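Bench log. Compound arrived from synthesis this morning; before running ITC I wanted a structural hypothesis for how iron/sulfur cluster sits in the protein. Inputs:
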Amino acid sequence: MAEEFTPKKTERSFRFIRKHGWIIAFIIGLGGQFIPEIGLLVPLVILTLLGMSLFKGMYWCGNFCFHGSFFDQLVMKISPHKKVPDIFKSKTFVGLILILFILNFSRQLYFAITGDTGTVLARVGSVMANTYLVVILIGLFLGIVINSRTWCHFCPMGTMEKFMYKIGKKTELTKNYDQKVTITEPEDCIECGLCSQVCPFELRPYPTLKENALADSSNNQYDEERCIRCRVCIENCPADVLTLATEDEAKKLN
Ligand code: SF4
Ligand code: SF4
């Protein structure tokens, strides 16, 4: 059984967009209530994150996602930061949310396209902006009662990213771009478990990474499709033995 760790709050934003992306989430979600056409930015966001996931897995979620920025920068401050219940991580639940999302989104889009009030762009934009706002509100609620990144465990966009990542891996599109958490010197790991305590996705780079790399030095990467490549474990490792690296870069570290 995987070792249990208590989630720990820590700095999670190391880049400008991760620090301030939440402003864009508010502009789309709230601004779209007044100027619905703003919601038309959402398809662009979806296409970008799906395209990126073909090459880099869930990198978008850990480095660009505007909702993720809101959860990490603002919601985490008021979150009790409890462990996310396993039900929210189960494949059945995650799949169910994706199906419900697609059905509801398609139904709303159909009515927006066939409706007769205002322009079609405003109606479609409004559907997109409302969806964005709903995620802000549900994510905020879950963040206040459980953990700031609870929503992310079953976010339909994340589920689609994982699907695209599988395609990327099969077609080797990931080969030169997919940067995974990599351990540089496993023997220097002091086994503090901090990397696992601070992970927003409650993943366990420790002890997996250390054990694998000690058994086989070429096995020094954390091969986990749910890893959002956010660098939180890396930045918090007191032994400074973690980094993000592509497969080729990791080989050179052996
Ligand atoms: S394993 Fe590290 S990089 Fe991956 S999600 Fe967790 S903290 Fe972020
Ligand atoms: S934070 Fe660094 S030193 Fe601590 S267990 Fe993880 S890899 Fe090892």
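What the model suggests: The CA atoms of residues 35 and 122 lie 8 Å apart. Residues 16-167 form one domain.
ITC booked for Thursday regardless.
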